[in-house]
Amino acid sequence: MARGRFITLEGLDGAGKSTHLAFIRDWLAERRIETVFTREPGGTPLGEKLRELLLDVDTEATLDTETLLMFAGRMEHIARVIEPALAAGRWLVSDRFTDATFAYQGGGRGVAAERIRVLEDWVQQGLQPDLTLLLDVPLSVSQARMAASRTLDRFEQEAADFHERVRAAYLARAAAEPARFAVIDASRDIASIQRDIATHLAALKERA
């Protein structure tokens, strides 16, 4: 059985991932591609408990503790959800994966990329997404959307310079791995964004 395809969505909070995940779900379903949808932090019972803790505005943790908790949840996620789905030939779509750790804990918090890579190598054993859709928006767009839609979590409440560093880290990773990343201008109208997403999904399907 052919191994499934692994897709991740990344970007600042407010970039529109939830909206476009629904489009991806429909696109894949129309083509009868069996797909598992999941998220990080989260994706497993343990991961969801860690998510609640990590996003709680009252949680206090050192930078290293926060990073280790992200990878603890990721190891469980890979073992119980991601690898079984891919091995069974299913596609898997995750709302965030390790690029988010490099962006938020690395770019935003200032944890050294070399330390994150050590954890990445240990936990993932070479596992990487086949396609990462980076929904990129200016910070002003991100903040306006968040303010209009929800109560902000622990990361969303960070100052503007934190989010600027997160965005810069995402774009730097995309520039370093252009074969994996598709950077999509998510400040445009929804139809234009989804046409771009469909183009990248179709290209991945052709390679499957």
Automatic annotation (TrEMBL):
Superkingdom of origin organism: Bacteria
- Asked if the Swiss-Prot or TrEMBL record annotates the protein with the keyword Aminoacyl-tRNA synthetase, the reply is no
The family database entries (InterPro entries) matched by this protein are listed as: P-loop_NTPase (IPR027417), Thymidylate_kin-like_dom (IPR039430), Thymidylate_kinase (IPR018094)
Q: What class of enzyme is it?
A: transferase
Q: Where is the Thymidylate kinase-like domain?
A: 9-197
The stretch of residues making up the signal peptide is: none
Q: Identify the residues that bind ATP.
A: 11-18
| Pfam hit, one | Thymidylate_kin
EC number(s) on record? Answer: 2.7.4.9
Q: Which reaction does it catalyse?
A: dTMP + ATP = dTDP + ADP
Keywords of the record, alphabetical order, are:
ATP-binding, Kinase, Nucleotide biosynthesis, Nucleotide-binding, Transferase
Q: Spell out the molecular function terms from Gene Ontology.
A: dTMP kinase activity
Against NCBIfam families, the record matches this protein to:
DTMP_kinase
Known role:
Phosphorylation of dTMP to form dTDP in both de novo and salvage pathways of dTTP synthesis.
- HAMAP family associated with the record: Thymidylate_kinase
Task: Give the family, as the similarity comment puts it.
Answer: Belongs to the thymidylate kinase family.
This chain's protein is named: Thymidylate kinase
